[in-house]
Amino acid sequence: QVQLEESGGGLVQAGGSLRLSCAASGRSFRNNDMGWFRQAPGKEREFVGAINWSGISTSYADSVKGRFTISRDNAKNTVYLQMISLKLEDTAVYYCSAKVFGSYKYWGQGTQVTVSS
Question: Which is it for strands 68-73 and 58-60: parallel, antiparallel or unpaired?
Answer without folding.
Answer: unpaired
